[in-house]
Amino acid sequence: MRRVYMDANATTPLLPEVMEAMRPYWMEHFGNASSIHQHGQKARTAVDRARETMAQFFNCHDAEVVFNSGGTEGDNTAIFGLLHPGDHCITTSIEHSAVLQAAGRVARYGIETTFVAPQPSGLIDPTDILRAIRPETRLISVMLANNETGVIQPVEEIGRIAADTGVFFHIDAVQGAGKVEIDVRRIGCHLLSISAHKMHGPKGIGAMFVRRGTPIEPLLVGGSHERRQRAGTENVAGIVGIAKAAELAMHSLDDGTIYRLAQIRDRLEAGILQLPGTGVNGVVAPGAPGPSHLGTGERPPRAANTTNIWFDSLEGEALVIALDLKGVSVSGGSACHSGATEPSHVLMAMGLDKNRARASLRFSLLKTVTDADIDHVLQVVPAAVEHLRALSPVAAGTLG
Ligand SMILES: Cc1ncc(COP(=O)(O)O)c(C=O)c1O
């Protein structure tokens, strides 16, 4: 059976070039980058080169790149490393749990957090961030692209607010990296976190931009690695892998791959929307609650690979399973919370009711997706939806 993977926001496979770049660093070039002999030097050179590539990726200085274990560590580092008792933090209610739970933990130490809600479109209004600032606000943490809806947040405007008010600014760019260009100088952030496995690199490796002079307390101590900002023997193969993935991601942004990806995603979306009782989460609905930047029917900017669609009168979980049986891998809500039966906190924050949030699916495409993949999915989805609706107690009106 043909299998189509449409869960790229959960993780992505290594590209062959990434695998090839990493391979020697597990075997012949296995040295510890801190050793002074030839074996060590070989590893050190690879780490230095990778750091140069990441500096290009972020548009920062080499010394501002810190390698770590991924997005969770980057998000935790921003919150645990910068905030002290009595400080105030601003984030949003649609962040990944690596930010939300870190903010929850520091509350125990007298650090209060304001969680700014999104507009019904999924966009954060920068003026809501501005309004939340207090004299004791030390950190603003906002994501670049949302993992569930793909909505791209106005980080440049938020960066200007942070600069004007003298507040540190962290961006969780885990889902934005490779899909939109990242320029930390233009954005004006102090910290930015990415993860390799969301952009065709290996799992368990990430990188963080830390603007020079940002007073971050390291999460891990025990060595002078990464300019004393992150102790632990360097994961040399992983570091080589994230740099190769970043290099390929920069090419994809330049050579039209990401533009083509958006067109393919739009074709998928338009095809699914032919079904009655469906819609995209993140479009401003008539009579949507609260003010919005956008007019009725307008869509905010989104990551090129993502669409989040509601299907009336069925259970999202059931549709995920039905599609899996037909060879299509998608996710309901965020894959990082798979197993949880609670409706997505992101969709709920956007104002969806529980049933509609539960009946929503995320299609997140790999940049290697083909038209034939879309054809397959457009064949399978209508049949699965019709079948489930015919069986569904939701459709029969027996669920509240
Ligand atoms: C927006 C966002 N931030 C952080 C993370 C965590 O990244 P990692 O899996 O590298 O720990 C994820 C993972 O899904 C994510 O989507």
Characterise the protein shown here:
The protein has helices spanning 16-22, 38-58, 71-82, 97-106, 126-132, 155-165, 184-187, 225-228, 236-254, 257-273, 316-325, 345-349, 354-358, 371-391; strands spanning 4-5, 65-68, 88-92, 112-116, 137-143, 168-172, 191-195, 206-210, 278-280, 306-311, 328-329, 360-364. The chain is of the alpha/beta class and 400 residues long. It is globular. The two termini are 37 Å apart. The mean pLDDT is 93. The structure holds pyridoxal-5'-phosphate. Pyridoxal-5'-phosphate binds next to helix 3. The site of pyridoxal-5'-phosphate has 14 residues, from helix 3.
What's the helix and strand layout?
Layout: E1 4-5, H1 16-22, H2 38-58, E2 65-68, H3 71-82, E3 88-92, H4 97-106, E4 112-116, H5 126-132, E5 137-143, H6 155-165, E6 168-172, H7 184-187, E7 191-195, E8 206-210, H8 225-228, H9 236-254, H10 257-273, E9 278-280, E10 306-311, H11 316-325, E11 328-329, H12 345-349, H13 354-358, E12 360-364, H14 371-391
Helix pairs in contact: 1-9, 2-9, 3-4, 10-14, 11-14
The chain binds pyridoxal-5'-phosphate.
The site of pyridoxal-5'-phosphate has 14 residues, from helix 3.
